[in-house]
Amino acid sequence: MCGIVAYCGAPPAVPRLLSGLKRLEYRGYDSVGVGLLHRPDDRLCVHRAAGRLTDLVAALPNSGLEAVTTGIGHTRWATHGQPTAANAHPHQDCTQMIAVVHNGTIDNADEVTDWLDARGHKIATEVDTELIAHLIEEHLLEACDPLRASPVTTTEGPADRVAGPAALERLVAAVAGAVEHLRGSWALAVAMDGVPGIVLARHRSPLLLGVTRTALMAASDALGLGPHVEDVRELRDGDVVALAPNRQVSWYDRGGRAVAPPDPLRLSVRHVDAELGGALDYTSKEIAGQPAAAARILDTVAGRLVGGRLLDDLGLPSTLPVHLLACGSSAYAAAVTARLLTQFAGLRTRVMTASERIASPSDGDVLTVAFSQSGETADVLACLQDGRRGPWLAITNNPGSTLARRCDAVFDIQCGPELAVAATKSFTTQVLAGAALALALSTSRSRRDILAWERVLLAVPDRLAATDALAAPIAAELASTFAGQPGWIFISRGAGVPYAQEGALKLKELAYRWTEALPAGELKHGPIALVTSGVPVVAVTAMPTQRLAVNLREVAARGAQVITVGGRIPDAVLPAVLPAREPPWGPLESVVALQHLAREVAVELGHDVDRPRNLAKSVTVE
Ligand code: F6R
């Protein structure tokens, strides 16, 4: 979570920083701040605001910003301390001369706090980032006076002591020294009053550096770099990097020794279509964009499923057991895929919630498939560090992401950036990627069988479009009837269960309603106690429909308001256009109807559907 940008070079720096922050705002939007260095003497000014980037922009001074050549910025999703202006980054040291923006978490914050307390530092916030600013201050003071034994007693800052041409190098040494005290993860950008340039550092939290014709730009993900960067390099764990205004970049290791830069990434920073184009919000734009997104990914797999050509092209074996791991909506896409791999392809599979992973007994190599829209989810990346047994495939929307760069193969779902926080088109296209992968892995199935299901798969975009048109107005009517209901139950059977779970997650995220999502057969084992008069029970049509119908009669008898989704149960309340015979990947199209339902309930309740409370798009903390 949280996004970092840094800019160093020719003015105007502020518009570049703000547009980088805007592109990263999906990563967190509860507070925001910038630290700016003004010409001619690199005077540092810090501006922070609670709320969104627009709140920061409103708080910026009307004049003087054109003199800013260099700056750092941060958009936050609070982990330590409330989302207030005081807790927003950049954080500062006792003298207010150092400004630090940080992604990640400091695991030994208590220990560092005690150490800094003992040395006289005044810690003003509960945010772990602030400790880093004080540690840098401490190292600058120590560099001036290596025998310093007494605590900080003066408000006279360390900047004047490090002024001059070597100022940036001294700041590098101080940052390298400061991070030696830390355990945890960090991507840092540091600016200091009177020091021309910026220092970056990284440990287990991504940070990229790109070059434009006139400046250097750093960001915690490729989207933040913007469209004009070339020569993008990713900092390695332990790297400390100095950015000078003349676009000179100096790379150092964790000991402060000069090192060669890493190789440039083969990365194309995708153009972000940030226009609403007539849609009311990004969520509705992205729901409506699903047929096109589906057609795009299916175009890339058409004709490559029989005989496992897709696997050959990805350079992956077809015989290994498959482990699938992901979080949130991506985990439901992984569950759909796992079912297909087991039941249709006959492969041994294991699905893991990435945050709950446990190492399995080593019984040889496996193919690990990581589903992650962003490719930056910390829990997923942490699994990579647990050790590898066999090849890894990333199914992601971000081929420049950390996950993609670290996996052996990448299946790009290429659904275009999702600017709404809740996953919609990325879920649909992850399911399609998973289905294509599973068909390609079905080596025991006949060619005819695979071709028949490939034809059904290729017709998904049309069915998604038909569902979109049919379901949207009905979802709006349902929302006006049911929006006041505080608790909802989502059920299905078999291959429909992950879609019911995804529909429930959407309602939670967008409408802040309590939801229960479960296989319909489990109702009688406890959750049916929740059913009272008027409770909405949303049932996703899936095989075997007769058994689902029995469960629906049971809840209706207890007063539930049954909302059937799909086409097969007679008189489905919320239509979804499904194939005549249930495909092995289940009733995918129903998810469009469920997305509309969640969005319409949220709109009815007056919520911001694109930026739901407490959430961020990319969950970069474990
Ligand atoms: C739900 C949602 C989240 C993500 C989850 C994983 O709408 O957006 O549940 O699916 O945080 O994110 P990625 O796919 O980026 O790893």
From TrEMBL:
This protein's record includes keyword Calcium: no
Keywords: Aminotransferase, Glutamine amidotransferase, Repeat, Transferase
Enzyme's top EC category: transferase
Catalyzed chemical reaction(s): D-fructose 6-phosphate + L-glutamine = D-glucosamine 6-phosphate + L-glutamate
Transmembrane portions of the chain: none
Boundaries of every Glutamine amidotransferase type-2 domain copy: 2-246
Source superkingdom: Bacteria
Keyword Repeat: yes
Database matches in SUPFAM superfamilies: N-terminal nucleophile aminohydrolases (Ntn hydrolases), SIS domain
An example Gene Ontology molecular-function term: glutamine-fructose-6-phosphate transaminase (isomerizing) activity
EC number: 2.6.1.16
Residue ranges of domain SIS in the record: 310-447, 478-612
Alphabetical list of NCBIfam families matching this protein: glmS, PRK00331.1
Name of this chain's protein: Glutamine--fructose-6-phosphate aminotransferase [isomerizing]
Organism: Pseudonocardia hispaniensis
Gene that encodes the chain: glmS
